[in-house]
Amino acid sequence: MIEFNNVAYGYGGRDLLTEISLSLNPGSFHFLTGPSGAGKTTFLKLCYRELEPTAGQIHLFGQATRDITRDQVAELRRKTGVVHQDCKFLDHLSVAENIAMPLSVAGKPMDVANLTELMAWVGLSERADALPAELSGGERQRAALARAVIMSPDVVIADEPTGNVDWDMSLRLLQLLIELNRMGKTVIIATHDMHLIRQAKSQVQTRVLRIANRRIQQAGVDL
Ligand SMILES: Nc1ncnc2c1ncn2[C@@H]1O[C@H](COP(=O)(O)OP(=O)(O)OP(=O)(O)O)[C@@H](O)[C@H]1O
User: Does the CB atom of residue 40 touch ligand 1 within 6 A?
Assistant: First the structure.
């Protein structure tokens, strides 16, 4: 589903990531960890073709990213739901309208029942008409997750989804991501939080990837 073949990426001519070869299978659950500035967000951006590698090849859904057309990029983005680290919203629109935004951008009709169900799933039914500025950190993250999955993507990528929330909320967010994985979605989570990884390991088969020395290694079982 996501294949890296001897990939390198750097900003300004200096490699940040190098010799990355790995394969993420459909339905798998991955954590990506590593020190601040190691390149986690950069790696995730390569996984949804926000960035193209400076060397090597990436295949997403069987397609070489280098060769794909603009239309195919749009299609590929629809298959991948992303929860960004800073989860931005359109401040003048309600939470429900923000969550439904990917549908309007794609020119798809809004299925109200589906939106209602999705809002209930993330526990935001009561906040549908609120403005983003009125949400707590945990509510923002859950709204961002709902927005990321409204197009029924095959892959869900979350960049530090629990960075600014307490432990109870972290567990709640993790639970939602585990549920998505049980529905068959491939899940990739970047996090510093080893407690979160341990918690997930007790519930779901996960692979932990760690960035060290510009390379990505599979972490051992000692986490
Ligand atoms: N657009 C950019 N231009 C130049 N340098 C960048 C750019 N984006 C990121 N970097 C640099 O690349 C390095 C890796 O950034 P990245 O955000 O991928 O790391 P990270 O592991 O996600 O960090 P954190 O855990 O702090 O979020 C950092 O040194 C960062 O300053």
Answer: yes
Type and span of the H or E element at 84: none
Atom of ligand 1 nearest to the CA of 39: 18
Q: How far is CA 130 from CA 24, 80, 84, 121, 162, in A?
A: 37, 26, 21, 17, 22
- Residue 123 is predicted with a pLDDT of 93
Catalogue the long-range contacts made by 35-38 (C-beta closer than 8 Å, 24 or more residues apart). 35/211, 36/192, 38/211, 38/212
Q: At how many degrees (to 10) do helices 112-121 and 137-149 cross? A: 140
Output the pLDDT for position 9: 97
| 186-190 vs 2-11, strand pairing mode | unpaired
**Other beta carbons within 10 Å of 221:** 7
In one letter, which amino acid is 11?
Y
Q: Which atom of ligand 1 is nearest to the CA of 190?
A: 22
Which ligand 1 atom is nearest residue 44's CA? 18
Residue 19 burial (CB < 10 Å; 0-12/13-18/19+)? middle
Q: What is the mean pLDDT of each run of 10 residues along the chain (223 residues)?
A: 96 93 95 95 96 96 91 89 93 96 88 92 94 94 94 95 88 93 96 93 94 87 50
Provide the Cα torsion 129, 84, 179, 96; round to 10°.
10
Instruction: Determine if ligand 1 sits within 6 Å of the CB of residue 26.
Output: no
For 55, the 3-state DSSP assignment is strand
